[in-house]
Design goal:
By secondary structure, the protein is α+β, with helices and mostly antiparallel strands. Helix content is about 45%, strand content about 20%. The strands form six sheets. The chain has a five-stranded antiparallel beta sheet with strand order 2-1-5-4-3. Strands 11-10-14-13-12 form a five-stranded antiparallel beta sheet. A five-stranded mixed beta sheet has the order 16-18-19-21-20. α2 (about 15-75) packs across α4. The longest helix has about 60 residues, at about 15-75. It starts with a helix and ends in a 7-residue tail after the last helix.
Amino acid sequence: MTEAARRRRRPPLQVYLLSVMLLGFCVASGTTLFARERSLDEVRDQAQRDVEFLARRAAENIESGLATAEEGVVTLAANPALMSLFQPDVPEGCSLTFNSIGPFSAGRLDVVTADGRVVCSSGEVSGSVLPADTEWLSSSGPEPVVHGPIDDAELGEPSLVVVVPIGDVGLVAGFLGVESARSRLQEDLADAFDAEVALTADGAPVVGPPLEAAGGIAVEAEVPSLGWQVRAVMSEGVATSDIRAVHREVLMLLGAGVIVIVALIYGLYRSVARPIERLSATVRATVPGNVVEATVDGPAEVVGLSRDFAALTQDVARQMSRREQAEQDVVESEQRYRRLFAGSPLAMWVYDVDTLEFVDVNDAAVETYGYSREEMLRMTIADIRPEEDVPKLRDSVVNSPVLERSGPWRHRRADGEVIEVEITSHVVEFDGRDARFVMAEDVTERERTRRLLDQTARMESLGQLAGGIAHDVNNVLAVMLNYAEFATEELATAAVEDPGRWEPVLHDVRQIGVSGARAAALTRRLLSFARGDTAQVGSVDLNEVVSGIEDMLRRTLGADVELRLSMAADLRSVTADATELEQVLVNLAVNARDAMPHGGSLSIETDNLDVDEEHHESRPELDPGEYVRLRISDTGVGMDKEALDRAFEPLFTTKPRGTGTGLGLATVYGIVARAGGTVHIYSEPGFGTSLSVVLPAGEAPVHALVAPAEVEPRQRGSETILVVEDDDDLRTLALRILEGDGYQVLTAPDGVTALEVVAEHPNGIDLVLSDVVMPNMLGSELARQLRATEPGLRILFMSGYAPPVLEAEGTLAVGAPLVDKPFSVAGLIDKVRQVLDGPPPPTA
């Protein structure tokens, strides 16, 4: 049977209407009375649920507000900036603000030291001292602790105290007004239900009047974190007043309604049936194919309408359920995003991939880049990049993978400072737009430290290489100088006999010796730079320092830089380390060369400077007296005011990244300051730089006339000497010099062979002449093993390194006799004789 046939067999609507009308007259009065009592019961039940909801919601508000307050106090206590408040001199102007937290509309924040002194407050109690017996001052542990209620005179009401310690130095206390919280709950929640609320603990009121049910409805809800109860009370009269009034009106209207129903019954038939059919058709069109069997009996129109409405209701229910779940998911996702995004200590932002505009930034980004949030939201990511990096920005965005970690990149802050950051980014959808989420970590200091360490490592490697080369060159120079001296002695005799032939040769050989001596001086200087010889302060002539490294400076500056020297003839001496002054000149010359990439001129001037009282007033860093001035001027690019202000800061450099360490002028300043002097720079962009070093004049002249000492005839030797040297030529040279002076000489190429030689000549060796640095065994280790069997054996060391360096590294014992390489014939013979004639070494 079709649906239309079943519908036609149903009774028409008028039959049902007449039946309902007759039945209505019979049961109307009884139904009304029953409905009245049922409604009263429902109202009472609803009132019970309302009061339960009120008590529970009030308890939840107190619990949530307290949790938020604890979180806020923990966050404040973790702020590193608070530690400055516990210093001896507490900075003025600290600012704390208490904002309303849930129902807690009144309260304050205090930062308190361990001895009870309030160093900062959002209220009026800053500077006050709490009584020693204040209970919550003894709180400890990392978790927040809640105390109270206490009577707080500042708030004028009972208060809860949320306490979080800050290490051993103090704590942060948050005060929450309880009475104002109850009033807030009464106003926001209870008044809407015509009810009253109070806070109780174990049945006793905490704040608010003691509320009794008195025939009404009373409900208590627990506040778990406090162990308190929220008591809500509603009188029955209030709960049922509205429904009783309604029922009185219903009874009056019932009589009139019966009369009206009779009149309308006929009209309802004509006006309802056809609209119901049209409504049913509309519903079926709205939800096609979703037909539900009728669940009620009655007219065909009503049955069809019921079926269609059932289908519509089910569909709406499903859609509403999905919508509510989707809305809940969105809210939870938004809350998680906000907690992670806003609270992150790293700078984060979201930008539109098409326009590159910032669409959201967190507080850390605002703090890192120095712009306000409103400013950043009007900017693009190109605005935080240096201008030279902007052209490649679009390509890097387009070619970025979905998830990317890269860097370091250069970013520019609001004050113009360029920082380096590593970024992690991924593609997101933000407000319907294609966007990219970025997390940036500032690695400026880390990268600067890494580059400095790399530069230091390279410099150390170069120093070690230079030191090793200089040590080997020293050995070669020792051989060359001494053989030149041998040749000079022979040629001097020959030149007496035949001047015409041998005088020119003697001159040439002597020039070889002079050049070798200069090479030896350069080698010692290279060793000093490479190994960091200890400062040797003495009376120094700046003119000699400048002249001594003139050739080195010319090679350093190159052919396109002209070096001009102007030195005062009557220059005073200074008390300083000559090697350090050479380092000052080299550093300043290198800086000047870098400032003149296309060539120019460098002038070095020395002169005397007298500072009187008038001069002292204009230059207060110079006391009245006698000084020596060293002025270095170049024709380079110059420096602006910002660079001049920071010129002596360690690690500051105006050179391109990777080409300078920022230590040159800082080193100069340190050396000059140790010598009691000052440094002054004058420079303007495009007009070069002039740097003046002013040093106090020494007390004694550099060149003091010393009466020549009477030279005693040198005693020839006859003792046995063991020469230990790994360089074959230098060992052969020492053998020749010592044998030429009458000594019996044994040789060994290393420490192991030397031990064997000594073992073959027990008590037959008077002196061991040993190199300090040798392969397989150092000279100090050789001496230790020799003296273990022969405690009184005399040992003389030879090395190209200065004694302070060898002693600082533990390579040579303090005070051990040492002859410098390269040595001369007389120098070696005199040192050997001095050790042999001196006291024997201590045996203990």
